[in-house]
Every structure is written in C-alpha cells, then in structure tokens.
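User: structure tokens for this one?
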Amino acid sequence: MAIGNHAVPYTLAQLSNVTKHYGGNTVLNGVDFEVRKGEFVALVGPSGTGKTTLLRILAGLEFANGGQAHVQSTTSVVFQDPRLIQAQRVWRNVLLDESSRRGARELAKAALRDVGLEEKLDSWPRSLSGGQAQRVAVARALYRQPELLLLDEPFSALDAFTRRGAQNLVLQLWAKYTLSVVIVTHDLEEALVLADRIIILSKGRIQSETRVDLPRDRDTTSTAFNALKRELLQQFSQGMH
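Assistant:
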C-alpha cells in the first residue's frame, strides 16, 4: 500500500490562544493549532494534558472559554468506544437517524464496503469482533462525507494485529477521500506510522511539534523511524515532569 503525502493548500480548522477550564482546572492554556487540507495530525501526551478536549472543540462538542476556534469544514468523530446501538442491525447503525431515507441500505452497503464489512450489512452488533465494531464506527463517520475526520484513541482497545490493520485502513481511506485527519493517541509508534505532524501536549500547552518526513509505508524497524521515535520519547518524557 504505497501512500504519498497530500498537498496541504488551505486551513480547515484553526485554534488561536484557546483556553478551556472545568471548574478551577485549566485543561487547555493558550493553545494555537491548525489543520490543513489533506493533513494527518497526531496529538500525543500523557493523560490529562488536553488532547481529547482539543479534539472535542474541533468537533463542536465543547466550547473554548477563551481564544478563538474556527472550523471551516464538516467533521465526523470516531471514539474509543464504537457506541453501536445493540438493538439496530449494522446498516442502521451506519445511517442512524437517516435509515428511513430512500436507498438507505445501498448507502450503508457502500460505506461498509469501504471498511471491508459489506457482508455484515444485516448483522447484529453483538456478533462483531472489537475490530469489526470499530470499522462500523469508521463507516458511520465516513457516511457523513467529512472533510475532517477526528479519531479519539479509536484503536487503543484492539490487539496489536487488529490495530495495525485498522491503522492501514484509515491510511487507505485518508488517501482515497483526501481527508484531513486528527488522531488522539498515547502510542508514539502509532503516531509515527500514521501522521504527517506529531504534536505533544503537556499541562494544557503544546510542548513540541514534529514533522514526519518518512516515506510511506513506514518501516517500524528502520534506523530513521527508530531515531525519530527516540527523539519523541525524550520529548514525551520531558512533558511528564
């Protein structure tokens, strides 16, 4: 699967000096951040550093207490929990409240075909593996034809083999639809496999930003990959102090 870097001609989302508080707890403190067309960005950092809050602001699920947030694109979110409705067949989970529209099953089938689950159209969620359930969640997100796909640790509950397959799927969809993607992850290797740009957050601020210029597919055993991984691990550990 040879995937090249996308051109990044314009900005889809921009946060300027954004702050976010929950009670007396400051979660984001003066964050400047942008996502450009076709870009794949990873947000990395210890728990409680504001990664998911930043993602939720991009999705319009949270509002900043200060600064400005401009999102000029349609967005879809995939969470760690697939959040499938157990009483609905898979195809209805893909379309949710639009399942009564004309040609709904065919639309759901097309979305499921994109994630390799066309044969699960009429299955019940309880019959799916964890990896399959997460693929349905991705199909549901893609059905809405987003320009900006937001991923909140979607693969963290999967075993290593299934996780790598899910990562490859997202890369294929990113290339096919020229998506912009922002992923929240604790896994630096996952960030290096996927992203054009890795942002490490610490204590509600952006600690560092690293551009990943390694060619795709990325060889996790290569000298260049592991040198960059060591550099990021050092930055990551500094953010924990």
